[in-house]
Backbone:
């Protein structure tokens, strides 16, 4: 009896230790980015020379005391604003359109029987499994072949194709858990198909739809590989921009940008989780 | 004019193995206005399919369903003047109780004032006044059941369809709801078509019962007729317990018949419908069979046997009596309090007798 308690204490200590270690492993790199984004040292970010908000200020154009030396290491706020705007346009449009397509498809597959349904379902999930680089090249070949000029529009179309799959999967899961007798009950009480959809089906799957939208939004926001192939001259998004910056060296402004992107993503995810918990 | 009339309805489902299941196999049924009709049958007998076809959730393959001689063919569920109480209630989880009850009125764009009044009235009818602001998951099963009823009744349907609505409730609650449902049906004057597999429930509540099995209506009659004069062996066995002996009429004296059973015993019965030489099945309810352990009480004793099992169920002793050739008769013997002498041990030789009037004869059908 006594032995057992001792045993379990040791085990619980080990388990806690392991858990902590694992979390450290996951979050240490992110923590470092966060810390370095406040490091005044412009040349070697691993050496701490003092605390500064300058890197954040350079992003928003608020660093007046910038030396010409610093300026060489930073991108102009106008340029950053441009790519952030591009990213926002792409992420918002692509995730909105794919939410509509993905949801409609999920409902069609959940509620109707038709020939070849299983195969159709498999094809819908496939874009999630296809390696990004293959998808990127394929989209590029398609756009070029179809005579599209690479631009923000091609990025939006490209994102919409595979994001629809993600939304489809998330909404399908929600639909699978929904009691179909609710729709029958609605019809039974006199509601036509459209009213039933608006008043019963949609409210029931709303957490899935919102979740799918947010997932699509986040994926679109930080996609690099596919976007890299299909973004034209005017279509550079924030992740592509950061990647381009990296080519010219690891610079502290990148840390600040990365932290902001991370914070934004966390906020979006938090909203998603909150909505999910609220709708039980 | 017919009220709700189902004629020669057929519906088959394809099985995964490529065969067909005839859920409805030539079903004809006439539901009268204002009656409480129960579709009674084992699971998979087609009773729920029939209900769904009436509601309009499914279409029959052939045949016709009509209301007051107007065919309902092609009329979708939301245009039929029927409402359904679902087995799992199917309350809308995202709406509170009063919005659940008011759903049909909202869809029909009933004016605000009238909607409020009718919702209030319906909630009062089912005894849920003041529950309007609660969420469905805050209510007990019995209360959710009432909400489902109110939600349907508020629309004043021509027919209320109930799909095993009491099966999810515990026994006590179920018995209370049986009485309430029956009273409710009387007070609102709406036709109820009630689906159940529970024969006691059916006998307790119905004006008429349609016993359904294998996609066919086996018998449509009042509860007493169903119990006392089952149309066939299936009905006799499904509704209550029956002792069924197969035999041949060997003596006829007016209405009084003597039947020799397959295990070479002679039993008595009265019937207008059978004659000398007819092959029949004799149906005897266990509570109509009495026993005299000493065998002296009646001159013309019917069946002799040995007690194989004796089960005490409180109000009665259920005796399984071996009557020879492997046949067992079940006898419900009244149990008197403190009457130890009445206790019948396994292995006792007994004689069973009954009033010939209690025996119900049906034609022998070869399966």
Residues:
């Amino acid at each position: 009896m006594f032995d057992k308690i001792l045993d379990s204490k040791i085990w619980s200590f080990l388990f806690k230790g392991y858990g902590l270690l694992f979390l450290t492993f996951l979050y240490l790199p992110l923590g470092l980015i966060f810390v370095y984004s406040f490091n005044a040292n412009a040349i070697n970010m691993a050496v701490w020379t003092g605390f500064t908000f300058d890197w954040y200020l350079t992003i928003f154009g608020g660093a007046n005391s910038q030396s010409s030396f610093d300026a060489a290491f930073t991108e102009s706020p106008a340029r950053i604003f441009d790519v952030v705007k591009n990213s926002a346009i792409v992420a918002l449009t692509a995730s909105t359109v794919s939410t509509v397509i993905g949801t409609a498809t999920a409902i069609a597959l959940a509620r109707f029987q038709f020939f070849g349904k299983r195969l159709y379902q498999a094809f819908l999930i496939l874009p999630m499994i296809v390696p990004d680089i293959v998808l990127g090249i394929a989209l590029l070949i398609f756009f070029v072949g179809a005579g599209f000029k690479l631009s923000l529009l091609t990025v939006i179309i490209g994102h919409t194709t595979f994001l629809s799959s993600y939304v489809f999967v998330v909404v399908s899961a929600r639909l699978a858990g929904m009691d179909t007798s609710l729709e029958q009950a609605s019809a039974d009480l006199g509601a036509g198909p459209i009213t039933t959809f608006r008043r019963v089906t949609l409210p029931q799957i709303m957490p899935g739809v919102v979740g799918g939208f947010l997932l699509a939004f986040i994926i679109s926001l930080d996609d690099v590989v596919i976007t890299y192939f299909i973004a034209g001259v005017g279509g550079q998004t924030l992740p592509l921009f950061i990647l381009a910056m990296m080519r010219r060296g690891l610079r502290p402004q990148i840390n600040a940008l990365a932290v902001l992107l991370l914070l934004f993503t966390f906020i979006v995810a938090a909203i998603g989780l909150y909505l999910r918990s609220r709708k039980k | 004019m017919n009220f709700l009339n189902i004629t020669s309805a057929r519906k088959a489902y394809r099985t995964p193995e490529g065969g067909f299941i005839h859920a409805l196999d030539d079903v004809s049924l006439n539901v009268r206005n204002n009656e409480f009709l129960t579709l009674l049958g084992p699971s998979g007998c087609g009773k729920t399919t029939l209900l769904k076809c009436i509601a309009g959730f499914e279409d029959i393959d052939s045949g016709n369903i009509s209301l007051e001689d107007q065919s309902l063919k092609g009329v979708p569920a939301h245009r039929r003047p029927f409402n359904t109480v679902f087995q799992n209630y199917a309350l809308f989880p995202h709406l509170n109780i009063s919005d659940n009850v008011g759903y049909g009125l909202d869809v029909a764009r009933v004016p605000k004032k009238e909607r409020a009044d009718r919702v209030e009235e319906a909630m009062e009818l089912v005894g849920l006044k003041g529950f309007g602001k609660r969420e469905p998951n805050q209510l007990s099963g019995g209360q959710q059941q009432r909400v489902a009823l109110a939600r349907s009744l508020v629309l004043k349907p021509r027919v209320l369809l109930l799909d095993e609505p009491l099966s999810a409730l515990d026994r006590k609650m179920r018995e209370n709801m049986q009485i309430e449902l029956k009273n409710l049906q009387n007070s609102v004057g709406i036709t109820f078509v009630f689906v159940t597999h529970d024969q006691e429930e059916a006998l307790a509540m119905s004006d008429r019962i349609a016993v359904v099995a294998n996609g066919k209506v086996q018998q449509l009659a009042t509860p007493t007729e169903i119990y006392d004069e089952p149309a066939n062996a299936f009905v006799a066995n499904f509704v209550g317990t029956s002792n069924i002996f197969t035999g041949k009429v060997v003596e006829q004296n007016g209405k009084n018949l003597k039947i020799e059973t397959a295990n070479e015993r002679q039993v008595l019965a009265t019937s207008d419908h059978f004659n000398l030489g007819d092959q029949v099945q004799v149906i005897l309810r266990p509570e109509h069979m009495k026993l005299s352990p000493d065998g002296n009480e009646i001159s013309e004793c019917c069946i002799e046997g040995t007690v194989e099992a004796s089960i005490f169920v409180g109000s009665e002793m259920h005796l399984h009596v071996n009557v020879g050739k492997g046949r067992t008769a079940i006898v419900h013997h009244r149990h008197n309090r403190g009457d130890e002498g009445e206790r019948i041990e396994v292995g006792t030789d007994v004689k069973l007798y009954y009033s010939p009037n209690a025996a119900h004869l049906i034609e022998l059908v070869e399966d």
